[in-house]
Specification:
There is one protein chain. 0% of the residues lie in helices and 49% in strands. The chain is mainly beta and 85 residues long. The chain has one domain. It has a three-stranded antiparallel beta sheet with strand order 1-2-3, with no helix packed on it. A hairpin with a 3-residue loop joins strand 2 and strand 3.
């Protein structure tokens, strides 16, 4: 089977990562401009059909500090990301 996870890594708790374990280990590289202080909420596997399980989708739900707005205080926004299998 496969295990997908999203968490904060490193001893300071400042490196957000998404990982997949399947016959080895795959994780995202860390770039500070990809995620801004994320709060991972959950994941959902959506089966598209039994004929081709590679078409299944995995959605990641999280919130993060909005970088596209220029406010004087931190603004958290909700996000949904689709994970490629």
């Amino acid at each position: 089977g496969e295990l997908y996870s999203a968490t904060i890594e490193n001893f300071l708790g400042m490196e957000p990562v998404m990982m997949r374990s399947l016959n080895g280990f795959i994780r995202t590289e860390f770039h500070s401009y990809w995620l801004s202080d994320p709060n991972f909420i959950g994941m959902k596997h959506v089966a598209e059909g039994e004929e081709n399980p590679d078409d299944d989708k995995i959605y990641l739900f999280f919130s993060e500090a909005a970088m596209e707005f220029d406010f004087y205080k931190k603004l958290d926004v909700s996000r949904v990301a689709r994970i490629c299998k």
